[in-house]
């Protein structure tokens, strides 16, 4: 075997080894759309089981499922989320899997979220975190008020994938303002590549280098996301890339083990 052939083989084998449990340092995938049939994510229990198996092979041990709550598009409630959570939990048990899943939500900042805040009926992550998002088309003028209102209830807001809001790309200071307001920031793993475009990757890497991210999630919806995630862990040294940030995903295990997670009634 020639030197170059041997080198190529070694690199290929190294990439394969690196892809196994590459994401184990995160321990918890805290943003995904694995609950079946209630938003634009997984369409069936069987599909969800396949996704969980694949994500587990990448190193994730537990999953906090965060279906959309979006007025007029995905009008989910604790009841609908609880039903989907129960169905997937039963599917895992029947398949012999001991993987644990937990139910929360990704709340769009809209009138519906305002009502949930007013009634203190948010879908919480373990530890009292609340995942929020904005439209990709236009900035929500209610962002900072929403952050404050969530905090007044004693909860901790996390802004999902801030790197994907293109209207912030020319104003890096806004990310600092959001952090200074006490809101945590969550990176989509896919943003480390060009999956969402060059500009999104550029902002994501700037936020990474600035140590701005607190949480990391897959935001997995479908097969293409899964294929791209597997490609990322084969090509990128994710753990090394994120060493500049204090990633809090593993701390969610403490809250889970302490039984502080959201209890959603399946009905």
TrEMBL record:
Reaction(s) catalysed (UniProt annotation): O-phospho-L-tyrosyl-[protein] + H2O = L-tyrosyl-[protein] + phosphate
Keywords carried by this UniProt record: Hydrolase
Enzyme class: hydrolase
EC number: 3.1.3.48
Top-rank taxon: Bacteria
Listed SUPFAM superfamilies: PHP domain-like
Record keyword Zinc present: no
Family, per entry: Belongs to the metallo-dependent hydrolases superfamily. CpsB/CapC family.
Protein name: protein-tyrosine-phosphatase
Organism: Sphingobacterium anhuiense
């Amino acid at each position: 075997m020639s030197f170059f052939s041997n080198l190529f083989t070694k690199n290929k084998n190294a990439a394969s080894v690196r892809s196994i449990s590459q994401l184990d340092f995160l321990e918890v995938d805290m943003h995904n759309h694995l609950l079946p049939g209630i938003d634009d994510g997984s369409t069936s229990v069987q599909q969800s089981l396949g996704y969980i198996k694949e994500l587990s092979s990448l190193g994730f041990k537990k999953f906090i499922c965060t279906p959309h709550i979006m007025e007029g598009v995905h009008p989910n409630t604790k009841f609908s989320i609880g039903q989907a959570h129960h169905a997937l939990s039963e599917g895992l048990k029947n398949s012999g899997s001991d993987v644990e899943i937990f139910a929360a939500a990704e709340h769009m900042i809209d009138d519906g979220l305002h009502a949930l805040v007013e009634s203190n009926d948010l879908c919480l992550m373990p530890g009292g975190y609340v995942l929020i998002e904005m439209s990709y088309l236009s900035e929500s003028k209610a962002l900072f008020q929403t952050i404050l209102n969530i905090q007044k209830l004693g909860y901790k807001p996390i802004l999902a994938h801030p790197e994907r809001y293109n209207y912030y790309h020319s104003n890096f200071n806004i990310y600092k303002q959001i952090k200074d307001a006490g809101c945590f920031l969550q990176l989509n793993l896919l943003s480390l590549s060009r999956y969402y475009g060059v500009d999104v990757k550029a902002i994501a890497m700037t936020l990474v280098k600035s140590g701005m991210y607190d949480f990391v999630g897959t935001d997995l919806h479908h097969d293409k996301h899964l294929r791209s995630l597997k490609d990322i862990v084969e090509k990128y040294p994710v753990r090394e890339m994120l060493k500049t940030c204090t990633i809090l995903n593993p701390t969610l295990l403490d809250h889970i083990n302490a039984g502080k997670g959201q209890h959603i009634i399946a009905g």
